Amino acid sequence: MFKKWFQSKEDTIPKTINKRNTPYPGLMARLSEEGAILQLDGSLTSRIPHEYRHLNDLLPSQGLDMHPHEWEGETLQTCIRDHDNRPIYLIGSIHKECDIWKLSLLDITELQEEKLIREKKEKLINIAIKCSREISASSRLFLMESIANAISSIVQAFHCTQVSLLVQKDNGFWHHLTPPSKKEKLNTHTHLYDISTQINNLNDDIIILSDFISASKGITFIIPYYQENRKSVCLQVTECSSSPDIAKEWKNIAQILLSAVATRLSETKLYNEKSRLFHIAAQQGTYWWEYNHGTAHFRLSAEMEKILELPARYDKNDFFSKVFHAEREEFKDRFNEAINRRVSFRQKIRLQTAGNKILWYDFCFDNESSLCLEPGFIGGSLSNVNTHFLHEQNASKAHERITSLVANAPAVIYIQEYNDGSLNNVFLSDSISNVLGLSAEKIKEDTLLNYIHPEDKETFHTRTKTLLKKGIASSQYRLLRADGSYRWVLDEAKLLRDSWGKPQEVIGLYIDVTDAVIANEELNISKERYRILIEDSPAIICRYSYELDLTFANKQLLSYLKIENLKDNSINLKPFLSEVQISNFNKRLKSLTPSKPIVNAEICFQFPNQEPLWVVWAERGIFDNSGILQEVQAVGRDNTEVHNARLEMYQSAKMAIVGEMATTMAHEINQPLCVMKMSLKNLSRKLNSSDCDNEYIIKKLNRIEEQITRSTKIVDQLKLFGRRSALEDTFFEPQNAIAGALSLTRPTLSKCDIVLSVSTSPAPLIKGHQDQLEQVLINLIINAKDALLEAYANSHELKPQIKLDLSHHDNTLLITVEDNGGGIPDYFLEKIFESFFTTKPHGKGNGLGLAISRRIIKRMNGELTAENTANGARFTIYLPC
Q1: Is 17 within 8 Å of 51 (Cβ atoms)?
Q2: How far apart are CA 102 and CA 92, in angstroms?
Q3: Positive or negative: CA dihedral 39, 41, 46, 50
């Protein structure tokens, strides 16, 4: 149905419409009864982008299927678009003339745009007032957020490209108070430096930035707000409209908004300044006071009232009572004088604060500052200077102490000023008079070079060059005293430079080292004497490590080693020692401790192609702080002659014993010879007879062989006993020494009818010389035999008896020789081990037997003792095993 209706409607519309330009200000249309446009005239026809065929095309907002008669006499308003898509606002009516309907529309575009601008202004002003109220009512903490929200509201309401606030820094440079609110992204960058220059040079109410264009066509302008005749804040706006008049329309809006912003920013700035001042005052302990001379009203800051614990109502006398009594009267007088005469004054006073603490305060009255107070009031500050004042007192005391110390110190402090390569004295401490007997002023007036010893001037010049090159120098030279003598000084100097590395001054010390230099010279002389004593000493002096590596050897030891020095040779002592000596060395070194660092011994060196060197050796251990042995220092004396003499003495004693037993030994050897002689006679006689047989011959030959063996055994034992002792100690069984001693003494005892009883038990090895222990045992047995024979001569009822006993307990071996010969007189017991002491008749003893025996046992680290028993004497040998 609608298709048929539209078709019928199209049939009634003419195919062509004639457009004529008429002077009618708008559009004039002739219409059919159905509303079709028959003719369109008027001044706007040239601006219409397309043809209009029906009334509905011109009045689209009025509804569908419009008929002219339905709108006759009605006022019609419509809006169409021109070629540039700009709106054209129209107003008119429909009326009938001669059966033709006419539509008359007037152009009211300018009137409509003015109306829109006016409405926009009203709306913008209302929003600005609202935002201004919100900014004024916002709290300080949320002020920037409120300003940002206000800017955002304006941008959204009026579709601006950009709106931002600019404030000026202290350096005159303007910056955005809040980030710019943008609806569109700018394609050109605005330089705030250029904007700042234009704002500062602005004399008008508005500045238009021609070079600041947004992506869409528009204009950017800045509107300043003046506060106390200066620009305090600006509003920067970018509008889509390119009309310069738009900036003027924003002026009232900007003033409304910026007045609230400027007021709140001033309040915030004032609050921040007060907060800073309060914080600084609290940190510095500074408070205010005020006094009205007319009403005698005195008041302090609330913080100070709390500190002083003043009552709710107080006057200046209450404040005076808090002043320490030592300063109170002076302070009252100066305070009243300053008030009456209006004269500024300042005084440090002590105040009694909370908890009865006394603190120092600086009370200040500045008459000029009081002019800013309320009429009738004067005032000032009260600052807590307790810490600073105490520091000043301590610093003053420290300065006095340092001054006194510097003036009386043994060192001289000096400062030299650098001037184009030269150093000039500008300060010398008074202690210079203690060193040189001259005042500091006299030396500064003269040049220091005149006081330096002629032989030390080159040293002084080298010191100066080194100081300027390296920045530090140390040297010693002699300075002339007032009495004409010279004193040695140690000069320690340091060069100070500025931040560019340029020399400024030298700070140094002169230390009197005369005594030290003299002592050092004497020490060097002593060292040289000591070195000569060590090097040329006939004794062996050396140092060696725990492994016996030599670290020092004097000339005496080097001569034995056949080398000139140790620098070119690495020498170890082990190749010159036997295994026994090396073992003894190790034991001695292990026994050294920090509390017992010294040990003595007799050692034997066996240097190549030289006789064995016996040395009395003293070793001293050198330990570190942890008690660990680091090195051994040893001194040795050649004891070879004494050692050989001792061996000769031992050997002589042996020979004396052999000589004493010669008769008995001759008898013992003669008996086998007689038996052999008799056997040979019997064998010869038997061989001449006819009844000689082989069995008889063999029997006699065996008898002869037995006697030869007996004689050989006696001779071998004598040879063994009579030979010289071995070079060094060895381990041996003590039973063998006892057997050897008994083989030589048993015949003698048997001849003298002395009963010998021997008791032995298994015993460990002992260290020493077996032949020397045999010598001791033989000597003890012979002495016991002589004592028994003497006792038997006095009493034939005596049955002579000797007991020899061998035993050991723990690590000690005991050998006892006991007789029943009546013992030794008590007054002889203490002397029997002395050399040349004997109780035997003249010619029968030399008094060396027991002395040598004791010395032999002592060298074996043992002990020989004598004591009386009930029937005789007992000698006991103690040996380590």
Answers
A1: yes
A2: 10
A3: negative
In the three-class reduction of DSSP (H, G, I as helix; E, B as strand; rest coil), residue 79 is classed as strand
Nearest alpha-carbon partner for 464 in 447, 481, 480: 447
- Quote the CA–CA distance of 336 and 611 in Å, as a whole number: 113
Token duo for residue 74: 């009605």
Do the Cβ atoms of 798 and 823 come closer than 8 Å? no
Closest CA to 760 of 802, 816, 720: 816
Question: Quick check: 226 and 206 in contact, CB under 8 A?
Answer: no
DSSP code, position 66? -
How far is the C-alpha of 299 from the C-alpha of 314, rounded, in Å?
8
Q: Which two tokens stand for residue 613?
A: 């060197």
DSSP state of 639: -
Tokens of 373: 């107070």
Estimate to the nearest angstrom the gap between the alpha carbon of 859 and the chain centroid. Answer: 59
Q: What type of residue sits at position 636?
A: G
CA gap 179, 536 in Å, rounded:
97
* pLDDT one-digit tens code per residue, 819-833: 988 888 887 777 787
**Cα–Cα dist 597/623, whole Å:** 9
Nearest to 656, CA basis, from 596, 598, 722: 722
Q: How many Cβ atoms are within 10 Å of 826's Cβ, its own excluded? A: 8
Q: Tell me how far apart the alpha carbons of residues 801 and 872 are, in angstroms, rounded to a whole number.
A: 10
Q: For residue 873, list its beta bridge partners.
A: 868
Identify any residues that bridge with 726 across adjacent strands, giving them in sequence order. Answer: none
Q: Are strands 37-41 and 18-20 parallel, antiparallel or unpaired?
A: parallel
Q: For residue 625, what is the DSSP state? A: T
Round to whole Å and give the CA distance between 881 and 815. Answer: 12
164-209 confidence digits (pLDDT tens): 888 887 777 788 776 665 544 443 344 566 677 777 777 666 777 6
Q: Smallest Cα–Cα separation from 633: which of 532, 541, 739?
A: 541
| DSSP assignments along 788-804, one per residue | HHHHHHH-TT---EEEE
Residue type, 423: L
Instruction: State pTM to two decimals.
Output: 0.36
